[in-house]
Amino acid sequence: MAHSTYEQWLATAVEEARAGLAQGGIPIGAALYGADGTLLGRGRNRRVQDGDPSMHAETSAFRAAGRQRSYRGTTMVTTLSPCWYCSGLVRQFGISRVVVGETATFHGGIDWLAGHGVETVVLDDPGCTAMMRDFIAARPELWNEDIGEDG
Predict the structure, then answer these.
(1) CB–CB of 99/75 below 8 Å?
(2) Residue 151, pLDDT score
(3) How far apart are alpha carbons 74 and 3 in whole angstroms?
(4) Contacts of the segment 21-26: beta carbons below 8 A, 24+ positions apart
(5) How many angstroms separate the CA atoms of 128 and 23, rounded?
(6) 4-32 tens-digit pLDDT
(7) What Å distances lie between residue 7 and 26, 46, 79, 91, CA to CA?
(8) The dihedral of CA 36, 37, 39, 43: what is its sign?
(9) How far is the CA of 140 from the CAs of 40, 97, 108, 135, 145, in angstroms?
């Protein structure tokens, strides 16, 4: 698939991340695309907004996509490297590819996914990196809560 397609798909995830930040949440967005490039679902980290610790961006996009007969050939696009929880979701349901905006602020499970046969593409998007760095600097306690660290 073309790099330009991944950048277009990332724009959808970035819109979600910005919407989450505007709502007082953590600025991580995601989108799940079908093998044919159809947008199946999009979502944002809603842990703060919903008071639900499991509502990560990838989970939100996955739920928005609804039930699929198979996830083979699908692509999860996310602004930030998926955490272990979301990496497990990708493996559990056989999502074929993960496109990541950035891994500089959080490396997560991207190497583990690659080691288990998931195609991984890291875009190193400077806008995604800046958005997370600014958020982490402004709200370190909320960030540490999100990644399961004491601070």
Answers:
(1) yes
(2) 54
(3) 16
(4) 21/131, 21/135, 23/48, 23/49, 24/48, 24/49, 25/49, 26/135, 26/142, 26/143, 26/146
(5) 18
(6) 999 999 999 999 999 999 999 999 999 99
(7) 21, 23, 11, 23
(8) positive
(9) 32, 30, 17, 8, 8
Clarify whether 145 is annotated catalytic.
no
* pLDDT value, residue 2: 86
Q: Which of 58, 102, 119, 145 is catalytic?
A: 58
pTM score = 0.95
Q: What is the DSSP letter of 106?
A: -
- Tokens (6 digits) for 63: 């739920």
**Residue 96: other Cβ atoms inside 10 A:** 15
Cβ proximity of 69 and 42 under 8 Å: no
- Alpha-carbon distance 100 to 118, whole Å? 13
Beta-sheet strands, E only, within 10-144? 29-33, 39-44, 75-80, 97-102, 119-122
pLDDT digits (tens, 9 = 90+) for 55-108: 999 999 999 999 999 999 999 999 999 999 999 999 999 999 999 999 999 999
Q: How many CB atoms lie within 10 A of CB 85?
A: 15
